Amino acid sequence: MGAYILRRLLLMIPTLLGIMIINFTLVQFVPGGPVEQVLAQLEGGGDVFSGISGGAQELQGTPGNDSGYVGARGLPQEFIDELERQFGFDKPPLERFLNMMWDYMRFDFGESYFRSISVVDLVLEKMPVSITLGLWSTLIAYLISIPLGIRKAVRDGSVFDTWTSGVVIVAYAIPGFLFAILLLVLFAGGSYFRLFPLRGLTSDDWETLSLVGKALDYLWHIALPVAASTISAFAGLTLLTKNSFLDEIRKQYVITAKAKGLTESAVLYGHVFRNAMLIVISGFPALFVAVFFGGSLIIETIFSLDGLGRLGFEAAVSRDYPVMFGTLFTFSLIGLVMGLITDLTYIWIDPRIDFESREA
């Protein structure tokens, strides 16, 4: 097992390097870098993208200014050169990439171009929101889906199985953002009830509340965004649990166990459960990462939550490269590690699985 883990860890290096190379290369061809952002703001142009669509004349600047930057009109070339030096664009792309990767290997992600805060501190500041959505959504999805999926498998073809399948399919078909808007309209003062707050993880007077009051206030605020994040994960996981149990229930060892006189509960939870739950439980890390990173931008925007989803979007819009590449490197590394943890979870649940012998 040690050799398998070592091989997987070594494989992460070229995979991570490939991800960074592709994204860094693509960024070199995207207009509107951080220097253009600053120049556009200095010239009163607001966002640089309005200047990019403003025509070829703007792209050429003005006579006497040989800079190709949008918004460079009337600004001295010395000032633009100094901006490039501050942002590190006075170096060739290859040198910038190698310097960046050397820093990232030492987990030095630099400082945001526009926020005067280190990337690590910025990510840690936004992390509680994303962890809240990812962790609670995953836990609730498992707590609902596993019992429901088992019951659907045991009562396959019954009226209960039919109508719950209809509910699950509808839940799976509803986009998370649409369900989030529906929750806001119905329960957050949109048009009907004002039962939940519109924004944030805590109330303004959270610091003055008791310990129990803080916990209740926190749960009150996360109820709607977590529900919106959970719906699609819950639906897919329920069907996965049901199908996994159905496959095991129909196998010969289950028929043999029943023939020996074991009760249905003893067969289900003493024999079937361990084998059927292998694929379900081992997928917990991957599901958490999917909920943690996927779809968080829309949910955070709708519920006015300041998390990693909005951070990544704002960094991409403003071309805040340290935040963009720092978070990309970190999240890619987390995703690769979670893939390894998923494989190890298989072995923890069922020690009979041996990845080393399979590779051989």
From TrEMBL:
Please give the CDD domains that the UniProt record associates with this protein. Answer: TM_PBP2
Where does the record place a coiled coil?
Answer: none
Q: Give every ABC transmembrane type-1 domain span.
A: 127-346
Q: Would I find Transport among this entry's keywords?
A: yes
How does this chain sit within the bilayer?
Multi-pass membrane protein
Subcellular locations according to the entry: Cell membrane
Q: Which Pfam families match?
A: BPD_transp_1
* Keywords assigned: Cell membrane, Membrane, Transmembrane, Transmembrane helix, Transport
Transmembrane residue ranges: 9-30, 129-150, 162-188, 218-241, 278-303, 323-349
Superkingdom of origin organism: Bacteria
Does DNA-binding count among this protein's keywords? no
Q: Provide the primary localization.
A: membrane
Q: Which family does it belong to?
A: Belongs to the binding-protein-dependent transport system permease family.
**What NCBIfam families does the record point to?**
PRK15133.1
The entry's protein name is: Microcin C ABC transporter permease YejB
UniProt organism field: Jannaschia ovalis
